[in-house]
Design brief:
Layout lengths: L6 E4 L5 H12 L3 E6 L3 H13 L4 E5 L5 H15 L4 E4 L16 H25 L5 E5 L3 H4 L5 H20 L6 E7 L5 H4 L4 H8 L10 H14 L7 E4 L5
Helix pairs in contact: 1-2, 1-9, 3-4, 4-6
Length: about 250
């Protein structure tokens, strides 16, 4: 086992932004744990793509909303590669339909908070104890917090909680050399974003930023890679990666 190579866990990385992040970090020299909740076949494709480029990766199933599963995720990462240096908290959900707050049912509210907030809390708690000295944590927020679009009240609230945990955990990890930051994407061309939206809605959202396009998963992966490697003096911050939308 090569325990000198740094190791990254990327949650929810079987598809979309998470898959792009996993492949970018692998290209940058990390061994990568490709975490997935249920789609083993897609996770295997990401691992195969990384290995085809000469990288090292392993797929590990874990629902981040389950604290015991998160403990096992870290156990398996260490069993595979000997250490954990980077945690990227990409796993999250957004409903295909986005009702106004008054029309949101209990089940939607509870599921959003279970995955987006409790899931992030679970992995942060584990990382605070398990990351190597000088490690990096990159959480995921959303630029919706800044633009405050109707229909995104509950989703945005979950990500506001993530930003708060990001800032405070950075201070609580004093002395460990671990930075804790968040990336807040704007509209990005992934299945999670496109699901349930008409062509007209997508076009309108793409035009919100002065670059007049949707972000691509690789755009967000570049921001994560910066915080994982070059952002050594950036700590407790949220980086909005949205083309200037807000």
């Amino acid at each position: 086992m090569n325990t000198a190579q740094q190791v990254a866990i990327v949650t929810g990385s079987s598809r979309g932004i998470g898959a792009a992040v996993a492949q970018r970090l692998a290209a940058d020299g990390y061994a990568v744990i490709v975490n997935y909740a249920g789609n083993a076949a897609e996770a295997a494709k990401v691992v195969a793509a990384i290995e085809a480029q000469g990288g090292r990766a392993a797929a590990v199933q874990a629902d981040v909303a389950d604290s015991a599963a998160v403990t096992r995720l870290f156990d398996e990462a260490i069993a595979h590669f000997g250490r954990v240096d980077v945690l990227v908290n990409n796993a999250g959900i957004m409903p295909a339909t986005l009702p106004h707050l008054a029309d949101t049912d209990d089940a939607t509210f509870d599921r959003l908070f279970a995955v987006n907030v409790k899931g992030t809390f679970n992995t942060l708690r584990e990382a605070a104890q398990r990351l190597a000295q000088g490690g990096r944590i990159v959480n995921f927020s959303t630029s919706v917090i800044g633009i405050a679009l109707p229909g995104y009240a509950i989703y945005g609230a979950t990500k506001a909680a993530v930003e708060t945990m990001t800032n405070i955990l950075a201070k609580e990890l004093r002395g460990k050399g671990i930075t804790v930051n968040a990336v807040a994407p704007g509209p990005t061309a992934t299945d999670l974003f496109l699901n349930g939206k008409s062509d007209e809605q997508v076009e309108r959202l793409a035009k919100l930023n002065p670059l007049e396009r949707l972000g691509q998963p690789e755009d967000i992966a570049n921001a994560v890679a910066f915080l994982a490697q070059a952002g050594t003096w950036v700590n407790g911050q949220t980086l909005r990666a949205n083309g200037g939308m807000v």
